[in-house]
Amino acid sequence: MSNILKVTTPTTGYDNNAINKPNNAQQNQDLSIKNPVDPNRVVRPDGRGQAKGEHDVNKGISYESNFGNFVQSLKDLPRLEDVMTKLIFTGMANVVESGVGKGTAAEIQALLNMLQMTPDQMAEFLKGQMAGANRMQGPLFDMLRQVMSEATTVELKAGILDFLKKYNDMSSGSHLLQNIKDALKEMEGYMFRNDREQLAKLAERLLPHSMNANARNAQILKEQIIPYLGKYISETRDMGRIRDLITTLTLNTSRYENGNLERLLQSFQKLMEFPAFEKGFGGMSAADFRAMMQNVDFDRAAGKMPWVDNLLNIMEAGVKGEAGIENREAFMNIMKAMLVNESVYMPVMHVMLPAILNGVPMFSELWIDPDEESGNPGSRERGIKLLIKFDLKDVGFFDMMMYYEKGKMDILIHYPEELSDRESEIREGIRKIMKKNNLEIEYLAVEQGKESIPVSAAFPKIFERRNSINVTI
Predict the structure, then answer these.
(1) What is the pTM of this model?
(2) Which H, E and C letters describe the chain, residue by residue?
(3) pLDDT digit string (tens) for 235-275?
């Protein structure tokens, strides 16, 4: 196994959840007019030419595309750990004392109590977080990944992806229906009384979510609620917020209907027509598959944890200013950073780990690529690559990059400057931990960290799609 922990040079100006400080070249950028307006040739709408080096830096990224917007978000957002550590280390206590409402203060105190744990409890907490970060896990999806990696036809790969899309929508059914109900409730606030009452009556016909109620709810939405809203817009010519809500409603309705169990079953039966798929799932009938899906507890399978709901409630209150206007921006930054990390364009798994470990507050983030190439020329071996960042109160900030393959580890750790006289102790401690867990260290680098390792440098695949076709919705 070769050492693949060499940090690559990230695309200039971009990092996951980080505001990169401008370098001297950027600070001294020529602010003069790039091009005068020339009526004899076609120029940009603002009459300016492309800034020097702009094309080289962006390398084909179009900021009018969805992926371009994602890349721009990586540049503009603050680092999540910078904001979360302030809240966990000191900020939460300050917020509690700032005269917020009783409900918000109680939520904050409850969250702090949930985060109190021992090392053994933290291990279970991490397992739950990992489960929540990947709902597509277990023997079924292990087999799907194997079939996908061995598939030789485009049709089989497309069929598996269609199956996964339907499964994802089905597992999100309860959440999608709640979003639909919330959108309908908000629409009522933009309507006159008679229209509002009529929409409320239609919304009351929606049944609580279940696999059996999915088809009925989709029918009510498609045949009654959405046509009513279309008629309302046609008659009132309302071009305001309600039109945006209707667009969101139709998208969620489409996903909700796509997650119907019968549709998923049809997708599975089509896949069984492929010999490669049938070989792996030959012992499973359509009835067996239906029964398996009906017995899945999707909230439990997704590793849903009470502290997450608690944190989201606090974030909502903070964004609304209920935790003090002075704290609103911090809560906004947390929510934006969390959304970017969970973007469909993020090709690695991201896990957030706040904890108060034996009374010591800490915040950690993990980025995991479970399918990392070994780095050996011509090798098809793959392992697991991790970037771990954690900040311990009164200790400092650590960066760790790790690569695991067949029981062997490559490790790079950056420790805070305050621990420079304890480097040998850190090195020996890591060796003992690896030995205790029957892991062999092939490469170990322990050094003082000057700057945080950018996620884009640890995982350059984040930018692999910058030259592919991008779309804008």
Answers:
(1) 0.60
(2) CCCCCCCCCCCCCCCCCCCCCCCHHHHCCCCCCCCCCCCCCCCCCCCCCCCCCHHHHHCCCCCCCHHHHHHHHHHHCCCHHHHHHHHHHHHHHHHHCCCCCHHHHHHHHHHHHHCEECHHHHHHHHHHHHHHHCCCCCHHHHHHHHHHHHCCCHHHHHHHHHHHHHHHHHHCHHHHHHHHHHHHHHHHCCCCHHHHHHHHHHHCCCCCCCCCCHHHHHHHHHHHHHHHHHHHHHHHCCCCHHHHHHHHHHHHHHHHHHCCHHHHHHHHHHHCCCHHHHHHHCCCCHHHHHHHHHCCCHHHHCCCCHHHHHHHHHHHHHHCCCCCHHHHHHHHHHHHHHHHHCCCCCCCEEEEEEEEECCEEEEEEEEEEEEEECCCCCCCCEEEEEEEEEEECCCEEEEEEEEEECCEEEEEEEECHHHHHHHHHHHHHHHHHHHHCCCEEEEEEEEECCCCCCHHHHCHHHHHHHHCCCCCC
(3) 888 778 888 899 999 999 999 999 999 999 999 999 998 88
